[in-house]
Amino acid sequence: MRDSRWHGRLALGLLLAPALLWLGALIVLPHVDLAVLSFRERTGPRVYTPSLAQYKTFFAEPLYWHVFVRTAIMSVIATFLTLLLAFPIAWIIAKLARGRAGSLLFIICLIPFWVSETVRTLGWMILLRESGVLPALLVKLGLTAVPVELLYRDATILVGLVYTSLLFMVVPLVSSLESLDNSLIEAAYDLGAGGFSILRTIVIPHAAPGITAGCIVVFMLTLGNYLTPTLLGGKNSQWFTEQIYTQFITRFNWEQGAAFGFLLLGLSTALVMLGLRASGQRFGDVMRRT
Amino acid sequence: MIPSLPRPAWLRTATAAYLIAFLAFLFLPLIVVAVFAFNDAPYPAPPWRGFTLDWFLGNSSSGRTGLFADSELLGSIWTSCIVAACVTVLSAIVGMTNAFLIERGRFPGKQVLSILMLAPLVIPGVILGISILAFASRVADFADDTLGLELDFLRPGLPLVVLGQFSYIATIATLTISARLRRFDRTLEEAALNLGASKAAVFRTILLPYLRPALLGSAAISFLMSFADFNTTLMLVGADTPLTVMMYGRMREGATPVLNAVSLFLMIASVVLALTLLRRGGSPRPKPDE
Question: What is the ipTM of this complex?
Fold first, then answer.
């Protein structure tokens, strides 16, 4: 008996070791270290003192917090647009397409996202740059006299971000809409409800968990995106992750970069919490749903 | 609205139009990338100047460096493959031990640990990258200062890239594998034990075959995600550049259609992998998942 208990402990220990090593050495300790970095200041060669200087710089320098706020606002807009664009397609997949057509359409919608973001962004660059496909088309159609540069605009960044995020919205929306019983909609219709009030009082409340899950994931990914804003926005992108990169890699100012990293992490965590609170859901459930 | 309710003609037309526009939006960037891989021009831009295979087969004699002669690009594909293979093996092992830990283990703090396991998915990749970079450097500096050890693998380079990608891909592997383990019928295991099988035999002959689809699925997803990762990799990369970082660098400079050629190759490879996986009944979704 005692022997088997000892075996159980050993097994538990062996299973626990990889998990603790992974989370401890790659997640928890690095973030603690990042926090320590962000709260110190270099006062001489290899001499550091604890200070709030990095955070002070962030608030004192308009460029930094402008970029921060801009990134947040653009991310919110991108999330909202993604939801708007993904909802009808999720509805078509979950409710309108019959039998195999639905799952086929679903797979077709997933395919582009198996290809890496770099490739998709390359596609957008070829489409939108001044010498690209769409400007040439606009000239041919007589809409513009000369090719216009469609890259390096805020709208372009938004298009790119929405495009990369679609999948993470469509998947949770489809699964939450599939579980909605059609007879509820039929009953509402028979009782005289119009399309809009059915949407507002039945569909949206039912799909709320899926909507929240999708919005949270999309917001997070957009906020932390680097590739799409820098390539499609060029020098005008002013994305916060770019600031982190500049501080960390280009300027080698790790203290400042760490503070920026923490601010971004704080913003992302705060909005995830807010979303969860607003919809009354638990973190674990949302992550499993998406 | 749903098919069982009357839908006015304008709504049907609008739905169809939306579907077509949506699919065009999804596939246009990919189609453009594929088409311009065959354009006989020095840049991936219109007009169409005729069909060529130069961007695949070209070598110094034709004056154009095609994909198969571009040793830098081929080298980065190989680098990406090595990194992805390491990440896949590590994630599969840790994903499996985590699945047993979460589904079978009973120990204090399990709830906290299982929430912590989800955390890597909500931390932006850039921040995972810088925190691991900073922490690894600190450990390396410490080893250098106190013990005089040169721990080169903790400096920016492929081992750190592997660790950085593994830090969040492990979560996805854990979720995929534990979702399947949760549905396992424990009476099968008990029956085998009652019939005198050893624990090792039960694991090898019953559990492992049962978990095989989830293991293969999570391996495929891990490989693809590692191959496509950009944010975390960018922060940790050293002298050897994986494909995404190499492509990014070239895209900023305005590259030749050889990038289209390599993208086409990536598209075909990932779609083939995705469709094989779908056929086998694994999860078709490429990211934070299941």
Answer: 0.88
Of these ranges, A137-146, A187-196, A268-277, the one predicted with the greatest mean pLDDT is: A137-146
Q: How many CA atoms lie within 13 A of A87 on its CB side?
A: 15
Distance CA B114, CA B237 (A): 30
What distance in Å separates the CA atoms of residue A110 and residue B284, rounded to the nearest whole number? 8
B139 inside 8 A of chain A by CB = no
Chain A segment 3-22 residues within 8 A of B by beta carbon are: 12, 14-16, 18-19, 22
Q: Which residues of A107-120 are buried (b: 16+ CB within 10 A; e: fewer)?
A: eebbbbbbbbbbbb
Q: Are residues B240 and B166 in the same domain?
A: yes
End position of a domain, from candidates B39, B69, B99: B69
- Find chain B residues with C-beta within 8 A of A121's C-beta: 251
CATH T-level fold of A54-99+154-289: MetI-like fold (1.10.3720)
Q: Cα separation of A36 and B82, whole Å? A: 34
Strand partners, A49: A41
**Residue B288: its pLDDT value, please?**
42
Q: How many CB pairs under 8 A join A and B?
A: 258
| Cβ <8 Å between A117 and B228 | yes
- Look up the domain containing B216 and give its range: 72-279
> Rounded distance, CA A146 to CA B63, Å?
32
Contact B57, B68 (CB under 8 A): yes
Asked if A184 has any chain B CB less than 8 Å from its own CB, the reply is no
In the predicted model, what is the mean pLDDT of residues B33-56? 87
